[in-house]
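Just wondering, can you check both lines?
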Amino acid sequence: MKKIYSFFLMFFGALSFAQTFYSENFGTPSGTTLITGYSGWQVGSPVTYSGSGDVRTTGASSGYAGASGSGNVFLTSTAGRNLIISNINSSAFNQADIQLSFGYLTSSVATQLVVETSTNGTTWTPITFTQNTTTTWNLVTVLGGQIPSSTTLSLRFTQPATASMRIDDVKLSSVSSSCTLVLGAATTTCSASTLALDTYSVSIPFSGAGNATYVITPTSGTVGGDNPTAVATGNIIISGITENTPYSVSITGGTCNFTTNGNSPECKPLNALTFQEPFNYTVGSSLGAQQTWSNLNSGDLITVESGNLTYGTLAGTGNSVSFSGAGIETFSPFTPTTSGTIYAGFMFSVTDLSNVTDGVDSYFAVLTDAAKNFKLRLFTKRVASQYQIGFDSAATTTNYDTTLRNIGDVVYVIMGYDFATNTVVNVWINPNLATFSSATPPTLTATTPAIADLGGFVLRQDGSTSTPTIKVDELKIGALAAEYNLSSATFSQIDGLKLYPNPTKNSLYIETAINSTIYVSIVDLLGKEVINTKVANNLVNVSNLTSGIYIVKITEEGKTATKKLIIN
């Protein structure tokens, strides 16, 4: 029977146990940075870092237990590129017990990474290890006997020829040969998935136990599951860890001392339709860190930036997001839909094409099924100093709108799928939102294999020479075309919204069904914001505005509405 058991405070000499005493995963660099200029190391002074390589997020580590992803050291194909880690203190451990491990990727299995140790920074001794047999990430483990016990241990990783190489997750541990306890790969499970921060649990399988008193100490959470003191095999469960908090668990007993750690899972919910996204998040934050989005891979982030786009009388609220070149794909799930229609509409603007190769196409916005398989794709293709917009279900296309668009143009697109027709997909580019309906002729159509369901939306960074700098604003995913018609009662997602008097001269009153916290932005017809305020007592002072027509953007609890305002 599984039960919760207490853990005890016990102290042991450092020489008695297997334990990790140095671990470096290279953090999360904002971009490619030389080792000598990087400050995001996980282990600081007195440990120092030098060498001729660089730190970057591309090619993130994966495929081995404990792969941290994100930052890694890259050694280009120039012979002699290296990483040097100095001033590691390994003196508390016997050389016979010191184990080195690191994630390793090479572009050529014929070229062997050179790994050396030194205790004075001058004399270097090579160590031996088994070369990768593939050009994918692998975890290299160097057993005890080759790493010195020293107060000034240095490690040097050198690319000796013309292959490019990557290094991640460098770890030094003291491993006792008499410890029989074996830990398996930990798994994490969310206790719930809501828009708030949830909790999760960690399950750590073990074997070789039942022969000592083991003490389990997590940095947070409650210990439960099987007790390795009492049983030989089972699963240790740590529950109640707050989402976004990494876990770390130490397990000691007999001659064993382990620390296992990892990152939090993403406990994020499905977004109910209609899903309206004004990107009202902190400027500079990662879109994938928000509770409505997740990152599908690693690389340069899609980030929130200040400012909005305006298309006709539709003006963005909150903030917007921007991305460019290669990097992360960010995914937002919504209620899986298998019948009727699905639409995804948003504003975007290409603000820079300088990095894109002329004639190269790339898709940046995608509707997916619930399993995250890409189904409908929106493309851009550079044509000299302008670009075209394409649409297809496939990963490449010749299905382009003939209109050439300029840097800075604001474009509104609606991607649509009708489960009744099942093999025809449509996109509307710059439709008239005052009259838009399902009967509006699409700008482009494409054929597709029948789609069983749609349940996600992706913003995608394809490549450094194919994805331009793009700003995206006011995403809306819904089941009805009327939700994209500005004159339709269904366009506003704020129940009971009233804005009066209109026309007005001095004061504007705003009421809703729930009268929660309301934010208002007012812009003129040139797109200049003239008021941005939190509404107090349902009243907005507009007495300083000159006579004319304005656009009022109202936001309440993540829902937005846009109204026209006339100032006398």
User: Anything to note?
Assistant: The radius of gyration is 28 Å.
